[in-house]
Amino acid sequence: MSFIKTFKDGIKYMEIWPEDPILGSIFTEGRVKYIMRLGKYLLPPFIMFLIVWNFIMGGGLKGVEFFYTLKSNWPVTLCCVLFLLVLPLQGYYWFGKRSSVKLNKKQKLYYEELCKKLQKEPAIDPVMMDFAVTVKEGLAKFGRDILKTL
Q: How many other CB atoms are there within 10 angstroms of residue 103's CB atom?
């Protein structure tokens, strides 16, 4: 059950993480989020390309029936398609694991200062999810100037 919870937390964390160049130079979440969005658009055409390529390489355009061409290369094509379908799940899982990582001393200090500015109670043992929520609220309220002390 925690495996599914990790995926759900990963999706939520990915949506919450603010996109800012200053954060992108410090944390890897921005780059992974960009790759995940890019994969959402590039993977479906690439999967279709693999299926069509299997059809053509199996002799599909020379008058051979469709089901015969699938019998020739289908195990390799199926493995490639399954691998490509699992890639986004790995990204969501990474985000889920990353959302539960505890903050280091410098991040925790910045988190507590930002909570004071926002007049909200900081978490006792903050994790990256708390950090992302607080930074997003701070960006909405104060603008990008709050990130200069990070």
A: 18
DSSP single-letter state for residue 65: -
Owner of token pair 């709050």: 146
pLDDT tens digits for 22-56? Answer: 888 889 999 999 999 999 899 999 999 988 887 77
Give residue 50's pLDDT.
87
CA distances for 6 relative to 11, 12, 107, angstroms = 9, 10, 23
Q: What gap in Å lies between CA 129 and CA 136, rounded to an integer? A: 11
HSE-CB of 142 using CA atoms within 13 angstroms: 16
Dist CA 125 CA 123 (whole Å): 6
**Cα angle 67-70-72, degrees, rounded to a multiple of 5:** 115
pLDDT of 51: 83
Residue with tokens 């990130």: 147
For residue 148, give Cα distances in angstroms to 23, 48, 118, 139: 10, 45, 16, 12
Identity of residue 12:
K
